[in-house]
Amino acid sequence: MILRGFQIAYSEPRGPIYIMIPRGVSVEYVEPRKPYPKASSEPRISRRAVEESSEMINEAERPAIITWG
Question: What is the DSSP secondary structure assignment for residue 29, as one 8-state letter?
Fold first, then answer.
């Protein structure tokens, strides 16, 4: 339900959303989850992975690199 609200809020046209949560749900006790492990501040990649990726790109007929950030 919450995820769907975010999907609607961030899709075009963007705008506010209203999520109604029943009172019983809002006061119900929920066991806390373990926190996610913190990501390393330094990204690490093995030399072998870089070499393999380089070979694949060099051997490709029409290479494409898609990134996000």
Answer: -
